[in-house]
Sequence to fold (55 residues):
Amino acid sequence: MIKVTDALNRFLFENTPVRGNAVNLSNTFQLALNKQNLPLGLKRALGELMAASAL
Fold:
C-alpha cells in the first residue's frame, strides 16, 4: 500500500497582498521516475513541470 503524501496547499497572509500555493508531489514524482534512467537535470525539469501543472 502506498502512503499518499501529495498535496496542494494554498496560503494567505492576512492584511497583506501575499498569497500562494505550496505543492508536494513526492509520490507522484517517484512513481513517474521509478523505471526511468534520466539525467539529473531532466529529472529536475520534470519535477518543476509536474509542480507547475498542479497549480
Q: What stands out?
A: The chain is about 40% helix and 20% strand. The first helix runs from residue 26 to 33.
